[in-house]
């Protein structure tokens, strides 16, 4: 089996490129890549491929819109996360047993969707989609915990960035490859072929070793109560509250600024083809580059400094959107400026996400990783779910340029909290 000990031996200080390259190409980083891909694929099936399938089958747009509600398990996953901290499955351990179970369910559920005609079996498709969402959210819980338990604090930045990048790249399968295949093959072949991309993750689960963690909860009550008690005991009520406020605000400005990106570009007069070419090519690869660069830099500078530097990198492009809106109001918004702003925003998002996910992982205790990680990551999704819903009303009230200034202001509390959350001169936890 591939070793994935929860307490790997400390890496030597890098005194050149060789040490960094060894860490990038280590077995643990390979695990982060494969699990990131397995984690991202089901979500993009739900938000991209499913909508295309239903639309192509003649389903009403209102019903297609209602299908978006199936992503609720991703926000509420902390409710059943204690089960994964407490119970083992199939004799494979707390992490591998749940990973294997969810991956088998995902392969079967995703592969079965295309077998049914939405015009006649919509309820069955809805049931399969709900099962996919539940299994996917549960897989995320366990994979996040597994990643935290096999990485040292120093490796969290690189491991998290590789995971996030693989998560995004997984979207190219249901969001591109599968859509192209749908022009040539029946939908049941498309969904079956898409489901097979889960096999690398399943194979990895079978060959990797279970992390060895002490003090794992022995009762369900411990699994439910102790993660929260541990979090508050370690940080105190004030520190715990500050942590939650920080998690809420750190990415709120960037998230709100991009919530209505496509309507904003259309209002500036850009065509859908131009938006598609620039956003897909400049945006996704800049984000991947930001994630990779962020992970490598965190090996040198640590998580605390990364939260400062990368936070600024995701904050400045919000002002770039304001500039784009200003220039657009004067009829001077060029494609080159559009590409520059989208590229800068995507790069900053990649950097900021790498630092943010690493911070969340660092705040988790190995014995309760699944529950604590699920809680913090769910709380960080609240702005995306609720605050983004208000963006249209704000734009209508104040206009695009003022809207982006508001987004920039909303991002400042998260940056100011860094004085308490991650002081610049303080050492990262080892």
From TrEMBL:
Membrane topology, record value: Multi-pass membrane protein
GO MF entries: transmembrane transporter activity
Subcellular location: Membrane
Protein name: AmpG family muropeptide MFS transporter
Example of a GO cellular component annotation carried by this entry: membrane
CDD domains from the UniProt entry: MFS_AmpG_like
Location (main, coarse): membrane
Transmembrane segments: 31-53, 59-76, 97-116, 122-142, 187-208, 236-253, 273-299, 306-327, 333-361, 403-422
Keywords: Membrane, Transmembrane, Transmembrane helix, Transport
Entries under Pfam families matching the protein: MFS_1 (PF07690)
């Amino acid at each position: 089996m591939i070793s994935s000990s929860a307490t790997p031996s400390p890496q030597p200080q890098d005194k050149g490129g060789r040490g960094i390259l060894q860490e990038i190409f280590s077995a643990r980083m390979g695990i982060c890549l494969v699990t990131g891909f397995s984690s991202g694929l089901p979500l993009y099936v739900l938000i991209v491929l499913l909508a295309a399938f239903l639309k192509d089958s003649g389903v009403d747009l209102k019903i297609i819109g209602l299908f978006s509600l199936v992503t609720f398990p991703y926000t509420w996953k902390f409710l059943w996360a204690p089960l994964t901290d407490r119970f083992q499955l199939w004799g494979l351990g707390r992490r591998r047993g749940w990973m294997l179970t969810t991956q088998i369910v995902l392969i079967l559920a995703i592969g079965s969707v295309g077998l049914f005609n939405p015009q006649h079996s919509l309820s069955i498709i809805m049931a399969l989609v709900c099962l996919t969402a539940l299994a996917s959210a549960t897989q995320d819980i366990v994979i996040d915990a597994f990643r935290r338990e096999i990485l040292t604090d120093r490796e969290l930045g690189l491991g998290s960035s590789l995971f996030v990048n693989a998560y995004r790249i997984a979207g190219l399968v249901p969001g591109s490859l599968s859509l192209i295949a749908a022009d040539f093959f029946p939908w049941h072949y498309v969904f079956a072929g898409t489901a097979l991309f889960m096999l690398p993750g399943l194979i990895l689960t079978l060959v990797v070793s279970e992390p060895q963690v002490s003090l794992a909860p022995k009762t369900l009550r411990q699994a439910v109560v102790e993660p929260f008690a541990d979090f508050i005991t370690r940080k105190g009520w004030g520190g715990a509250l500050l942590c939650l406020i920080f998690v809420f605000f750190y990415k709120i400005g960037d998230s709100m600024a991009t919530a209505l990106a496509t309507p904003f570009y259309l209002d500036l007069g850009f065509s859908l083809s131009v938006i598609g070419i620039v956003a897909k090519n400049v945006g996704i690869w800049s984000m991947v580059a930001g994630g990779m660069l962020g992970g490598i830099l965190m090996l040198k500078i640590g998580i605390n400094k990364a939260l400062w530097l990368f936070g600024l990198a995701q904050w400045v492009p919000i002002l770039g959107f304001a500039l784009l809106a200003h220039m657009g109001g004067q009829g001077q918004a060029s494609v080159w400026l559009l590409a520059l702003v989208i590229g800068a925003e995507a790069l900053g998002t990649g950097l900021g996400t790498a630092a943010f996910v690493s911070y969340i992982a660092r705040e988790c205790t190995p014995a309760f990783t699944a529950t604590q990680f699920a809680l913090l990551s769910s709380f960080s999704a609240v702005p995306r779910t609720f605050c983004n819903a208000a963006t249209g009303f704000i734009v209508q009230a104040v206009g695009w340029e003022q809207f982006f200034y508001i987004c920039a202001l909303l991002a400042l509390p998260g940056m100011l909290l860094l004085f308490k959350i991650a002081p610049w001169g303080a050492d990262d936890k080892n």
